[in-house]
Design brief:
Structural class of chain B: alpha/beta
Number of helices of chain A: 13
Order of helices and strands of chain B: HEEEHEHEHHHEHEHEEHEHEEHEH
Strand order of the largest sheet of chain A: 1-2
Largest sheet of chain A: 2 strands, antiparallel
Radius of gyration of chain A: 27 Å
CATH superfamily of the largest domain in chain B: P-loop containing nucleotide triphosphate hydrolases
Distance between the termini of chain B: 48 Å
Oligomer: heterodimer
Number of strands of chain A: 2
Structural class of chain A: mainly alpha
Order of helices and strands of chain A: HHHHHHHHEEHHHHH
Number of helices of chain B: 12
Shape of chain B: globular
Number of strands of chain B: 13
CATH class of the largest domain in chain B: Alpha Beta
Radius of gyration of chain B: 23 Å
Shape of chain A: globular
Helix content of chain B: 25-40%
Strand content of chain B: 25-35%
Largest sheet of chain B: 6 strands, mixed
Distance between the termini of chain A: 31 Å
């Protein structure tokens, strides 16, 4: 037992290999080591498995109930409408998919803060953060390690809900692409929330405080973005140049969808735009659409592809598509949505040329990056300032 | 030996830990106002002071975790503010808070620490089992750390501080929570580590412990260095001896007759204490008392040498 200190080979210097590649590998290696440490701790706590179990059960229940509800509504339709007049629907899949997706996103937003928002100050309270800081780990490695560990744990929750999205896909009306894109976007949103949580946990003194603040930030993104968009729209009064729509004597013909459920012909708006261009007052939603874009639901819904239905008169808009269309028309603003704006007939259905989600995701990443950067600053050692009421060890 | 490997020659002045005029404030609280501190390599230096004197803050600054508001710190000549990675390879720090990852086993904790210090992978397993044996945790190595008792966690924490074979050891209250057997072991271990040329800094309240292990002591109080002395100096300043006798009146009469100043202590057993400057005097006095027929029951130093200094500081304090 006395040979311990003698047989010790000298530690490899942190700058031992100064090659850029080696530095990158070393940096990532430190992050990986920390993630290993974190995951060992998480995977060994029973609470985590219980949470995953509850999550799985709840998503399963939601899927099952949605499926039952859809079947029941189809029964009701069949009993009142003769089958010949029954419009073909998208399969049960799209409804199950949408409900499950919305639910999984809701739960993800609820679970991710709990998994990440005590990552740093929890360790600080437990006295283990300083143990990490005293080693060769840099503040950046600690922050990224904590972030990755929180995100991985959150992804495990996402993975348990993937079967239900796939189930929705098999019920019809969807492609694997839908499932892949939505899982990707959910994963990205989880990363955003985890980043926010880790950043705040590095800044705040007490775990409870940072968890509450993270929940409030998430609430601000989900609900606050809608409220501020609505209020902002009231302030964003502007004008738009438009002339007058004149009704066209158009004989109404009920559109008969063909066998695939697609309308047989494109339908023109039932008016023409005539007369001089006059300024109309309008709500310039395009100026405040960025607030709407911050909403995780908008980002996810807008990123999921759906067929271009412009010109179609008959379609059943799902929830995802509805959110996406609403957000895009807000972004397009009155110039593209006001009737006869600039003397042009404006289609009711917007083409997918101006997606909103890159803007929203960009803003979310900006917010996350800012919080992570502030968190990184507070992790630097030797520390000059400490958060109020905290000890470094 | 590793010290030689890190190409440090014992005896050069830059070796060990030194702090000059460091100060650190937390808001309006001056945790450390002005501390000069030097812990030479190859010696055990005790950091002594009452609660709240700034010991932990000083150790945090020495450990490169906290930036001093002013003053300079050198770890084997390295400035931890500028060259923190190089300094950290030299520093082993054992905090006063335990801070263990509870669901990991002792072995896993040490392996993780070795990786955080980027030790060569090949040697880690061997290194870790050696350290576990050193702190007598080899039997519990594969138990989750949460089942370890406080003293065992304390020993694990010591092993953690030693994982990268640092040449400077900063130990904050290492003996707290240890059973007497482990204290003796800690003492032996620290003496040995110092013998290998490491600079060992120990903060503690248990002064009698420190008498046995420390080569020198730095006394701090209210954020300032009050006194820095070696143990030889501490021994020279005289010690207070406590004497009890079968007949206390006879004892005090004899002491008065010898013209010695003494103090009657209020204790469970009536005893008197008096200050003697050196051990020869103590031996002579004991002989005198026995010869004169005073039934001496006990005759021993009332306190350790460091405790003596400490208590004197206490009374000097305004």
């Amino acid at each position: 037992m006395s040979d311990v200190t003698e047989t010790m080979p000298g530690p490899a210097g942190p700058q031992g290999a100064t090659g850029g590649w080696n530095a990158v590998v070393g940096y990532l290696g430190g992050i990986r080591d920390l993630v290993v440490l974190e995951m060992k701790q998480r995977l060994r706590s029973r609470g985590w498995y219980i949470m995953v179990g509850i999550w799985f059960f709840v998503v399963a229940m939601v899927t099952w109930l949605t499926w039952l509800a859809w079947n029941a509504s189809m029964e009701a339709r069949r009993s009142t409408i003769p089958p010949s007049a029954l419009a073909p629907q998208d399969g049960a899949g799209s409804m199950i998919f949408e409900v499950v997706l919305a639910f999984v996103l809701l739960f993800a937003l609820l679970v991710a803060p709990a998994l990440s928002a005590n990552a740093i100050n929890g360790d600080r309270a437990g006295g283990t953060l300083a143990i990490l800081q005293i080693t060769l780990l840099t503040p950046g490695q600690i922050l990224w390690g904590k972030f990755c560990a929180g995100w991985l744990a959150a992804l495990a929750f996402l993975a348990t809900s993937a079967p239900f999205l796939v189930f929705g896909m098999f019920q019809g009306g969807l492609t694997p692409g839908h499932v892949v894109v939505s899982l990707l976007m959910l994963a990205v949103e989880l990363a955003v929330v985890c980043g926010i949580g880790v950043g705040i946990s590095a800044l705040a003194g007490r775990p409870l405080f940072s968890i509450v603040v993270t929940y409030l930030v998430v609430a601000a993104l989900v609900v606050g973005s809608l409220i501020s968009f609505a209020l902002g729209a009231q302030l964003a009064q502007g004008t738009v140049l438009a002339n007058t729509p004149v009704g066209r004597p158009l004989s109404y013909v009920p559109v008969q969808p063909d066998q695939q459920g697609q309308p047989t012909e494109a339908v023109q708006p039932g008016y023409t735009c005539e007369g001089p261009l006059v300024e109309h007052s309008a709500v310039r939603t395009d100026r405040v659409a960025w607030m709407l874009a911050l909403n995780p639901y908008v980002v996810v819904a807008d990123a999921i592809p759906y067929p271009d239905r412009s010109g179609s008169a008959f379609y059943s808009v799902g929830m995802i598509e509805g959110i996406s269309q609403g957000a895009r028309s807000a972004l397009a603003g009155p110039d593209h949505t006001f009737t006869c704006a600039n003397g042009v007939q404006q289609p009711q259905y917007l083409k997918q040329s101006t997606p909103l989600w890159p803007l929203g995701l960009g803003l979310q990443v900006l917010l996350t990056g800012l919080l992570m950067w502030l968190g990184w600053r507070s992790l630097r050692t030797p520390a000059s300032r400490l958060a109020n009421g905290t000890r470094i060890a | 030996m590793s010290i030689a490997e890190s190409s440090i020659v014992p005896g050069s002045g830059a070796l060990g830990v030194s702090a000059e005029g460091v100060a650190r404030r937390f808001g309006t609280v001056h945790a450390v106002e002005h501390i000069d501190f030097h812990a030479p390599a190859g010696k055990v230096t005790a950091l002594i002071g009452p609660n709240g004197a700034g010991k932990t803050t000083l150790l945090l600054m020495l450990a490169s975790l906290l930036r001093p508001d002013s003053g300079t710190i050198r770890i084997n000549g390295l400035d931890p503010l500028r060259d923190s990675a190089a300094a950290r390879l030299q520093i082993g720090w054992m905090p006063d808070t335990l801070g263990v990852w509870e669901s990991l086993t002792a072995r896993e904790i040490l392996v993780q620490m070795a990786r955080f210090y980027r030790l060569p992978k090949a040697g880690i397993v061997h290194r870790v089992s050696g350290l576990l044996e050193l702190v007598r945790l080899d039997g519990l190595a594969d138990q989750p750390a949460r089942v370890l008792s406080r003293g065992q966690q304390q020993r694990l924490s010591l092993a953690r501080a030693l994982i990268h074979d640092p040449s400077v050891l900063l130990l904050d209250e290492p003996a707290s929570g240890l059973d007497p057997g482990s204290r003796v072991e800690l003492r032996t271990l620290l003496r040995r580590l110092a013998g290998e040329g490491k600079a060992v800094v120990v903060s503690s309240h248990v002064l009698s412990e420190l008498d046995e292990i420390a080569d020198g002591a730095v006394f701090v109080s209210q954020g300032r260095t009050v006194k820095q002395q070696t143990l030889e100096e501490a021994a020279l300043q005289g010690r207070r001896y406590a004497i009890t006798a079968l007949d206390n009146a006879a004892l005090t009469a004899k002491l008065s007759e010898l013209g010695l100043e003494y103090r009657v202590e209020a204790g469970r057993r009536p005893s008197v204490t008096l200050l003697l400057t050196h051990d020869d005097g103590a031996a002579a006095l004991l002989g005198e008392l026995v010869r004169s027929g005073v039934g001496v029951v006990s005759f021993a130093p009332a306190a350790g040498a460091l405790e003596e200094t400490y208590m004197n500081l206490d009374t000097e304090r305004p």
